Amino acid sequence: MKREGNDIVFQVVNYIIFGIFALICVYPFYYIVINTISANDLVDKGKIVFFPRGIHFSNYVDMLQRNGIARSAVVSVLRTVLGTGLSVLGASYMAFCFTKQKMWAKKFWYRFVVVTMYFSAGMIPVYLNIKMLGLLDTFWVYIIPGMFPVYNMILVKTFMESIPPSLEESAEIDGAGFLTRYFRIALPLSLPIIATVALFSMVGQWNSFMDTLLYIRDYNLYTLQYILYEYLNESESLAQMAQEGMDMSNAAQNMTPTSMRLTITVIVTLPIMLVYPFMQRYFVEGIMIGAVKG
Amino acid sequence: MEESVKAKSLHKKSKREGYMIFLYALPTIIFVFIFSYLPLRGWIYSIYNYQPGLPISECEFVGMKYFTKLFSNPVMRMNLFNSLRNTFAMVGLGILTSPLPMIFAIFLSEMRSKGFKKFVQTVTTMPHFISWIIMYSLVFSMLNVNNGFVNTLLVQMGVIEEPVNFLASQKHVWITMKGYELWKELGWSAIVYLAAIAGIDQELYEAAMVDGANRLQRIWHITVPGMIETFFVLLIMSLGNFLNTGMEQYYVFQNAMNKDYIQVLDLYVYNIGIGNGQISYATAIGIMKSLVAVIMFGFVNWLSKTVRGYSMF
């Protein structure tokens, strides 16, 4: 009986602690969402805490019409779609090549490639290299440097090695060439891991910020993440100005620095939130293969 | 005689096939060379007085000047040591908090309700997928001095009279930075341990229960041993990677007030290289960082070979 009592206490405490942690994880997201659809003057005073008040959606309409937001959304979507597609093809093609035991000096070349995960020439030399290649201030700097991601290649290769070799051998006897075997057999059979890798690189592309910061000056090529960063800095200074005695008696629907910042945050976060439920079952597999391979 | 000719031609054929496959792989290898090896050429800028825009042949050769000056010039030395101190502080906190994902996984897996477990896992993993920019925006919404959630709440409850500017404070910078990181990554890092727990034979628990082991004893003698190897592998790997804190997190959170404590090595390289245009200094620091990283990886690999019997990479 005593043990059962202990057990109940344990379970209750456990539930409470995890419940609080879950709340801390969810609440900031909830907070920004309700604050973008509430009356902006209340928001500015920090009055919206648990429920939205004076619901309106004009912030989103305003924000999406604002110069630069729609354009940078296009840049973000394009780089995500194109970058993910090409890097998945690149990683899986490279992986397919390295599953071939017969490749000349395979061990050496595999190490040659894998070792690049563990050293980097450093930020400045990489920057100068990108500059030398003429990628500075072009859209392609988002796509090309990440076309053959080594870590993803290792994940795909590990998966491909578990495919029975007899499938490929019989295709080879039927006269299928190297590329045919890649496109018709190895690629379709690796779809589960391809999905994982694609999700990783999608998130990476969408969230990427450093490359814009380092390589892009042309504001036509700014991504949503970068625009958000600019708004964060700007609204900080705007907020400071407001504090120094600016008249802030705005109507409920007039944009304030706070509502601008919050609205664009939601716009940038939303795509991730929308795909997240679908990716959950894929990423566990990716982590496991990654952990085993180290 | 005929046999050996046949074998020879077979050998020849397979050799040719090997070359063919290599040719198929060659474009990818060249690509890796261009984007990962070619930048090493840029190390040369550390021994020249590099002026952006000038070809290297017209720059003044200065030898090891930048390397020695990093240590002999008091200001440079102080900045370098400062950023090293910050990096090591973050590493130290990282080691201290490294058992947390394991503990998280153990207690989560002890939970009875499958639905609640799933819910907790879903919402705690989610922050891993947002960028540090969004993260900063969330933190700013919670903590800013004008209308942040925490300040509003504390003022209303009468805990504080004036709002506190948490984000521009230079107190506890390391701990708050580690805290943000934990909030973002704890659920994600726990996944690998949850999978390890799922792989433990259930019969072990049943047998232990028959023998009268209580919950803590079962955790300590069955669950923990089942994932301790994963724990050490991940810990060792993070040690091998210790200088690569990345700079995104520190970049978005840095401001004039907390700069002394937030500037880790990666951010320092950015700030002096891109921010101040001191290309040669930044390259010199980058080179030393890369060399230390290679040595650390060699060491970690050796450690893994001696302790676990196989190489890490």
Automatic annotation (TrEMBL), chain A:
Q: Name one GO biological process term.
A: transmembrane transport
Extract the signal peptide range.
Answer: none
Major location category of this protein: membrane
| Domain ABC transmembrane type-1: from-to ranges | 69-279
Bilayer topology annotation: Multi-pass membrane protein
Question: Which InterPro entries does the annotation name?
Answer: MetI-like, MetI-like_sf
**What stretches pass through the bilayer?**
12-33, 73-96, 108-127, 139-160, 181-203, 260-279
Q: Which CDD domains match?
A: TM_PBP2
Compartments reported by the entry: Cell membrane
Q: Which UniProt keywords apply?
A: Cell membrane, Membrane, Transmembrane, Transmembrane helix, Transport
Q: Does the keyword Transport apply?
A: yes
| Any matching Pfam family | BPD_transp_1
Q: Which GO terms describe its cellular component?
A: plasma membrane
Domain of life of the native organism? Bacteria
Protein family membership: Belongs to the binding-protein-dependent transport system permease family.
Q: What is this protein called?
A: Carbohydrate ABC transporter permease
Say which species the protein is native to: Bianquea renquensis
From TrEMBL, chain B:
A cellular component term from Gene Ontology for this protein is: plasma membrane
Which keywords has UniProt assigned to this entry? Cell membrane, Membrane, Transmembrane, Transmembrane helix, Transport
**Membrane topology, record value:** Multi-pass membrane protein
Family under the similarity heading = Belongs to the binding-protein-dependent transport system permease family.
Q: Which Gene3D superfamilies match?
A: MetI-like
The organism named in the record is Bianquea renquensis
By its UniProt entry, which PANTHER family does this protein fall under?
BLL4140 PROTEIN (PTHR43227:SF11)
Annotated compartments: Cell membrane
Transmembrane stretches, by residue range? 21-40, 88-108, 129-149, 219-243, 279-303
Q: Which GO terms describe its biological process?
A: transmembrane transport
Q: Which residues form the ABC transmembrane type-1 domain?
A: 87-300
**Protein's UniProt keywords contain Transferase:** no
Asked if the Swiss-Prot or TrEMBL record annotates the protein with the keyword Transmembrane helix, the reply is yes
Name of this protein: Sugar ABC transporter permease
